[in-house]
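RETRY 2/3 - previous attempt timed out on the joint model. Re-submitting the same 910-residue input unchanged.
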Amino acid sequence: MNALIIAAVLLVLLGVSYQSGFAKSRGLVTADGVKVHSRPQYHGSYSALWTMIPALAVLLLWFWFGAGITRSYTVGLLPQDVLLSLDQTGLNATLTRINALATGYGVAGEVAPYEQSAGEALRSFNFLTFAGTLVLAVLAGGAGFVYARNRISARLRARNSVERVIGLLLLACSAVAILTTVGIVASLVTEAFKFFTFINPIDFFFGTVWAPNNAGGAANPGKYGLLPLLAGTLMITAIAMLVAVPVGLMAAIYLSQYAPRQFRAVAKPFIEILAGIPTIVFGFFALVTVGPFLRDFGALLGLSVNATSALTAGVVMGIMIIPFVSSLSDDILNQVPRTLRDGAYGLGATQSETIRNVLLPAALPGIVGAFLLAVSRAIGETMIVVLASGNSPVLRGNPLEPVSTITVSIVNQLTGDTDFTGPQSLVGFALGLTLFVVTLCLNIFALYIVRRFREQYE
Amino acid sequence: MATDTLNSPGAARARAVRSSLRRRHLSEQIFRGFGILAIALALGFVVLLFVDVFRKGIPAFVQSNLHLSVTFDPEIIDVSPAPARNGFATEAEFTAASLAWQREVALLNWNQVIEASLRQAAPAGTDIDSRTLLSIAETNARHQVREMFVANPTLLGQTVEIDVLASANAANWIKGNINRELGDAQQQLAAPARALIDTFVDNGTISNGFAWSIFTNVDSRSAPAAAGLLGAFAGTMWMMLIVIVLAVPIGVAAAIYLEEFAPKSRLTDLIEVNINNLAAVPSIVFGLLGAAVFINWFHLPISAPIVGGLVLTLMTLPTIIIATRGALMGVSPALRQAALGMGASRTQMVFHHVLPVTFPSILTATILGVAHALGETAPLLLIGMKAFVASVPATPLDQATALPVQIFLWQGNENRNFFEPRTAAAIMVLLAVMILLNGVAIFLRSRLEKRA
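RETRY 2/3 succeeded.
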């Protein structure tokens, strides 16, 4: 309700100020025929900006500090003896009750007389502050509007001012990308640092046992050795690459070198469908179809294969990465200059000899870069491994057995938990930091290689 | 003369080349064969995945309905008459009395009503205890009947024909999701219930219809046959709305700044590297960011679409920025120079001339980015959207779940026989939404590009 009123008031301010600036600008033209610097819509925007910025600033200030002011006002309403008898949680509970009384929701249980009076006082305080803020915002906007309107003249460089504000807005938007990275690094590092106050980093990075004690609290946290998870992650990634690289690369070679145009136009989007399918779908596919199939197939060969294993997760992840490998390789193969290929044909090489001996060596750095990007993607993949890896964080070398990965453990340790106080949940951030650093290094290195490769042939 | 040419070095080479041709052409064929094999494998995987999901999911779009004639027997429904509005002075008193009456109604044993109607539907002389009998109907049947009565208290003493859902176990038995040959110990339903279900199917008391409940119901634990996707769908829509409202303007604005206004400096280089890397950061790391920053530091509500939407926004931003930059880069310099030459400012050039030309590709990239965000699961698990929520979120601050998370939750349900098809059905819904979005993107691109 309050939000709706504020939005309505702001909209009215916006409309009135824009229209008024616009109209005044039109008036300038008809009055004396002087050449006006800016077009009417810039004068309108100029006056609208001068109105909206002060009004929004007032509202923002209240948004930031209002809660604190209201809280201290409410605390001041409480009788001295009640205030002294309450600890922090008790005080918060009382404040919540008073707030509930003020908003008219009502509370459970007996209402003390001081609560009742405080609730009524708070209600009128809330109304007054809301109305006051709104009036203040309108006044600030109005003042800005009057100032801007008075300044509107033929010589006013309204366009330049408006464009400066637009430029600042654009800059702020691109700062969001930087802030995201800062936020990721800051949150991961601070929370991981908290984790390392419980667990020695050496035990974490070089420990061979992963056995968190989720019910143990800080006193008995269990063991947090990264190596079993890292081994599982690498094993699944290796299997995924064994599936994705040959299939993806050969598909890219066929599509870019052999396939007729129409076939390419149909097949390429079809393969790229794989890239658009949500990973949870692949996870389900692995769990209910690929896993049981591999188990039965293994039994046929006399092998004992677990339905959920590194193999299952790796194979399905490989399928998921195929389009990634193939479209990146395709791009890179297309960037190799035609002259190299024509030279090889001229010497009498067959098509496959040209591809193997000329095209692939020339494209090798770029293809390696593409593979590294695919590896980084496989390491960070979550849902397939959550469903299909079997979640068994034990150090072992058999891909037919269940394993666990870094991402699986993050999900296991963090879901449904919000107070990041014990090592049990904080370890998620230490794992996340490890994951972030590993994938970041791979990405930077891969992007560097790909970029170098592009420059080489430009 | 002839022997001379035959023995010359050139001829020897020609002979060597000719004799090796067979081998070289064979290896050419093999190489090409591998290429075709790879394509076939990749396409095969696409087909296999779709066929598998559809084969599993389609049966779940059929639900088994029980046609019962329910008698609102005054002996079971022993309740005081519903309060009438004109008996009370104020609206508040009437509401209080109505609520008290509804509580009284809720305390009745509505299972007895269901049981009576099931017994009536069963052939005469069927010997079955009430627990076993009630296991045929889904547990939400009693709420359904109670709500009917609350809405219309004059039903007391009348008999009404209604459809209720057969229980999940009954549906398994009817559809053959469970092996009918298994012994009693492994069956989820007792033998008399199974026999009665077969009788009901034969005499038409149970019939199959399209499972609208998947689309009209929210998730349910106590009544699995009534579990639907409505709540998850609404949660996903809220998040998509937030992503579209935030990610698209911010992403396009950031791309415009970087491509058109930013001075080429080390800082902009850094921003560029940073954005490329953000696009490749694993999605689960964005979940950690959301858990630490939005929930732990800013105290935004847990499990709420607003947090999910913000996390997905940050995740989608790099994609939109990169795509928009690519589109801006592709605009011909002639257009820019013409605009600048006519006296337009840089801002006017960008907003009036360059941006409209790139609109189709930005739109397409945006839809694809949103579609990608729609299927994301891992970051949502970390911000608590894994919680069981049996309501439709009315605002983005309410507890909610999302389609992919609902899939994750359903695949973990203990009643595998029933929930495996249902999970596949949920996947079909998710894929349908994604295909729809992608189709719209392709359609719009071709339409708009033709016009441009």
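The radius of gyration of chain A is 32 Å. Closing ticket.
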